[in-house]
Amino acid sequence: MLIEKINKYLTEEEKITDKSISYEVSLLSQWAFERQFCNNEEPASKGKLRLSAAGQCPRKLAYAYHGIEKNGKEIDGRRRLTFFAGDVSEITITLLAKLALKKYGGGVLLATGREQATVKFKVNGIEIEGHPDGIFWDFQKGRLLECKSMSDYSFRELEKGEISEEYLAQDNCYLDALNFGECIHIGYNKNNSIMFEKIVKRDPKVVEECKKNLLSVLISTPEKLPEPKYPEPDEKGFCSWRCLYCPWWGICKPDAEKVLIGKAYKLRPKKQPQVLIPTTKEEPENKPKEQTISPVQQRAIPIGLKKYNIKSKVFMEWLEFNYQIKTIGEIPESKYAEICDWIRDTGTILSDHKEELIKTK
Ligand code: SF4
User: Which of 6, 90, 92, 251 has a CB 3.0–4.6 Å from the CB of 147, allowing a cystine?
Assistant: First the structure.
C-alpha cells in the first residue's frame, strides 16, 4: 500500500527537492539526537503510563509507575545509538511516504512528525496518552500508520505475518482510541534497509487484554505489585530476553545472574549451592549413642516370651521389622516398656483365641 509507493518514489526521483521535508527531517533528527544523547535526565515515569507500553510486563510498568529505583540493565551507549538510528529511519520513512503520496496520489498522510496527534485510551475512566506515527486518509476511511525499525529476526517474523505482542498491543490501543479498524504497520529491517508492511486489524480481545494489563498497574501499590509476566525460565533454563533488558530484573529476580552464552548475554537463575544432607550412616558418629537395656532386662525378655507362649523366632522378626534390631542386647532403654507391653498383649490375645478354638472344637 505505502511501501510500494515509497520504493517507486526513491527509484524515480534522483533528488528530493522538497525543502520543507528536509527541514522537518533535520528538526526531528535533532530531537532524536538530543533525546538519546543530550538529555541526562530520563523523562519522569513516576505516576505515568504510556500507551506504547500497554503490552509490556505489568510488574515492570508498575516499578516505573511507583518510581521504584532501578536495579537491572540500564540503556547503554550501543543501545542509545540503536534507538537514535531507529528514530531517524522511522521519521524518514514516514516523511518519504508523505512525498510519495503527494506525487502518486491515493491518499494523504496526516498528523506526522512534529504534528503527531495525542490519542487517549480510557482505562476505568483514566486516560492514558499515546502518539501514533501518523494517520493515512485514502479519502474514504482513516487508517493508523505505525513504522518500526527492527532486527533481522523480527523483520523475518513480520514477513511471515507474526508481529510482536508489544507492537500488537500498541497498534490496538491506538486503533481503539482513534476508533479506526486498521493499522498499516511498516517494518524496516535495520540490517538491509528492506521494508515490509502488514495490515493489523483491530482486535477487541487484544484491546481488552491491554485494559486489564494497564488497570493492574493503576490499582497496584509498591507493596502489592502486579504479577510478573515472565515468572519462570524457559525449557532451556533461561529467563525471557525481555527480563534481561528490564531495568528492574535485579529486584524482580534477585536469584538470577547474567551469563555470556556464545556471543550473547542471557539471564538465568543462579545455580543453588548444594546442601549436603548427612546420610543416616554419618549421623551416629556425631550423635550420642542411646542407652540399651541392662543385662537383667535382657534376661527378662525370653522369660516373658516363654510365659506368654510366644515363639522367639516370631518375636525376633517383629523386633527387626519394627525397630531394625537384630539382637535383644540392642534394644534401647526407651523402647523396653513398649516391647514388654507387646509381649503381654500378644500373649493374651493368643491364649484367648486358643480358648475359643478349643471351645468351638
Ligand atoms: S524482570 Fe521480567 S518479569 Fe520481572 S518485571 Fe522485569 S520484565 Fe517483568
Answer: 90
What is the location of CATH 3.90.320 in the chain?
A: 3-218
Q: Cα angle at 115 between 111 and 119, to 5 degrees?
A: 65
68 Cα to the center of ligand 1, angstroms: 13
List beta partners, residue 257.
268
Q: Which three cell numbers stand for residue 239?
A: 529467563
Verdict on whether the full-model pTM lies above 0.85: no
Cα–Cα distance between 188 and 341 in angstroms, integer?
87
pLDDT digits (tens, 9 = 90+) for 199-219: 999 999 999 999 999 999 999
Our measurement of the distance from residue 219's CA atom to the centroid of its chain's CA atoms, rounded to an integer in Å, reads 20
Span from the CA of 172 to the centroid of ligand 1 (angstroms): 23
* Pocket lined around ligand 1, Cβ cut-off 6 Å: 57, 59-60, 228-230, 242-243, 246, 248-249, 252-253
Contact 226, 48 (CB under 8 A): no
> So what's the architecture of 3-218 in CATH?
Alpha-Beta Complex (3.90)
| Site to substitute for ligand 1 among 68, 74, 230, 251, most atoms within 8 A of C-beta | 230
Nearest CA to ligand 1 atom 4: 252
CB 183 within 8 A of CB 171: yes
